User: Fold these one by one.
Assistant:
Number 1:
Amino acid sequence: MALQIAEITDLYQTQGAVQYGAEAISQQQHALQCAHLAEQAGASPALIAAALLHDLGHLMAPRTEARTAAIDDVHQYLAMPFLRGVFDEAVLAPIRLHVDAKRYLCQVDPHYAASLSPASQRSLALQGGPFSDDDAAVFIQQPFAADAVALRRWDDGAKDPAANPPAWAHYVAVLESARIA
């Protein structure tokens, strides 16, 4: 069952106040910052929408002890059934690939892993660690992999407790423009 934009908005308004992992910001603040970084970079509406929604799966993950345990919640896949039919692959693929983009960047950029926040370094280990050379080569050849890498970099920069991105209402129009007609 696909979520409509109003339902996605409601989910972020009701569940988005939850702390974003071990970071000093909320889930909603992280989403807004990430979308704002994408917008400032001149990204397409589809990629801005992907940046806004990339961690929606965290809000949909079961709230159990396992959520805080040393288990990967595979959040990059959890929201897919709820977004499919509303958005096309230009939005869905970067969301689905943003965790693998972190693993890719750890392999190809010698400084990237050290730049990750402690929480992101912990999740990297749960997500399988850096890609091998072969896995990195296969990853970057996928459609939308470059978009996922850009999204990943915005994701990493979207953890500033002092940031003041536009409010959610600003991005509703972006979501509408990225929506399947």
Note: The mean pLDDT is 90.
Number 2:
Amino acid sequence: MREPWIVGVSGASGTPYAKAVLTALLDAGESVDLVISRAARLTLLDETGATVRDAHWKDDVGAWLGRDLGDLAYWPAGDLAAGPSSGSYPARGMVVVPASTAACAGIAVGLSKDLLQRAAEVSLKERRRTVVVPRETPVTRSHLEHLIGLHDAGAVVLPASPGFYGSGAGATARQLVDFVAGKVLDALGVPHTLFRRWTGELGERNA
């Protein structure tokens, strides 16, 4: 039985993080269900020039990722009758990357405004692995309270905060994005080689 990871892309800046996570999951041979919010389409267009149309999603998502889609399925964000809206739909868990403050708030309070929020709520209530990647700074008290709510509900709150020990101060944007994507896959328990792991040896990066 197919048991995908659900990846939700919300409207926060940071679509390269979503691309890196999707690519890594597909490279690992994982099944993926993709949900892109309406706001995320605008961000994607602004940051990459890519468009995603429901009726042409295979061509559009393939062009955005620049690769074969493998076992990737797509659900329109407005389809609240879609498979991931139900707890009986088989799924391994969900990642929201990047996660806007609006998406975090909606998931934390169970708003189910669209399929992304509903699928994340389902993932939490079914006690499946759920990773939320907020990309906002600075944050207000209400933002922090919603993140605490997500944590208490069982989610892994994984801010888009790249580390530099794998590539140094001269790290490229790609290396920093891959670091965050690698941490997401670590939280899911999916093997990857997206970054050099810390081994306790200073200067190993230059060895």
Note: The CA atoms of residues 77 and 115 lie 5 Å apart.
Number 3:
Amino acid sequence: MPEKDQIRSHVYDGIQEYDNPMPGWWVMLFWGCIFFALPYWIYYESGVPGRTIYDNYNEAVADNLRLQFEEIGELKLDSATVYQYMNDPKWLKVGESVFEMHCVACHAAKGEGKVGPNLTDDYWIHVKEIGDIAKVVEKGANGQAMPAWGNRLHPNEVALVASYVASLRGSLPAGSGKAPEPNAKKIPAWQAPAGAAEKTENSSPDADKDSKEKSPEPKPAS
């Protein structure tokens, strides 16, 4: 009997099987996968920035944001901007995504507070008016217990996440979430800064289009 047709000695339910070796291509593929796994693991799991799928995802998100930001230009980190985009559902979604990516670890998913303070109540430490939120996000606070994000985020991301944080105020029932910090003070409701309404109107693409298409009214003949 040829070597490749050797039958094993054991019998299961009257069934015997050949003792044939695995095909050569399969064995080569098996060992090839083992040798490939080591350099693959070293390359992607060595901690070098920019190599993991998470880094690639973040880069893709950043590229997408840059394309979106071309529509609104670079935003100012002031009260009028934060107040304007607090009422803009489209751009508020961008602020929400930034919050979910960077802020939930300290402030929790709904802003109710965890390590960081509750963002849904009326008690604040470093904020007296709506524009201060952007300053805190940009420069940090409490000796960097609240980290400065100005050197890690696009200015538009800072402005839009500040708008989203401002929108969280009053989103949860009073008394829910983390209790106010001992040195926090109750501040008035958000007020529209002077010129905010005018800025919103002037920044509207439809308003620009209408102003271009609108022809001057004829003056009556004297």
Note: Confidence is low (pLDDT under 50) at residues 204-215.
